[in-house]
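Database export, one record per block. Field names are fixed; values are copied verbatim from the stored entry.
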Amino acid sequence: MNWKTYLLCIFLSMITSGCSGTYQAYYQTLKIAFTQQEDAQLTFTQVEQSDSDVISVKRGERPISIMALAYLENNQHKWVSRDNAMLIMEKGRIVRTLGLSKNLLYVSNTDLDPLKYLPDSQTNNLWTYTSDYTDDEYGYPAASVFNEASHDIVLALGLRIESILYIETMNFQATANYLQLANKWQNYYWYSKSGDLIKSIQKISPLSESLEITYLSRIARLTL
């Protein structure tokens, strides 16, 4: 069973359960996630009128896609796309993926992830963790450190948003199946002046494609 079929089955089960408010919102999510969109872009008005939060995601050199928020549970945001991919995040950190060529299965020690305390605090900016991946790759030890923040501008939905940029340097401490010279990379996180994460560029491993995520619904709400 592929993820589209799986999600539609969940939707049907929601209907039969009688939770009308829940399944109506989820139905709108499915419409956004699975409707063919030539340019995969939404206008400010479409974002503002959406019943579900939406993000835009550019994976590597691929065209931009739109993902919709399918679930918010256990402090995790679960975003789904029309091509059956899913990103699971905790406070903006990608902690699991589904539907990619190589998937992240697990990240440990997330309670101490400094990203959970930005932009309010940057005192504990060193983080160690392990991660698991598909193809039987388990327990890779790694560490990250955040650099001092700088001011920047995010362009989205026709807006220029003044933001604060944090750069995170990641370091795999065991090479395992990765090339020895490709064990470091950087992630980028942009916060609005009100403290909302509005954009990030992340890689789930040294050799994986970058995921550029723009939080369209959050940006639209900044104008309210």
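Remark 1: The two ends are 41 Å apart (CA to CA).
Remark 2: Residues 3-221 form a domain with the YmcC-like fold fold (CATH 2.40.360.10).
End of record.
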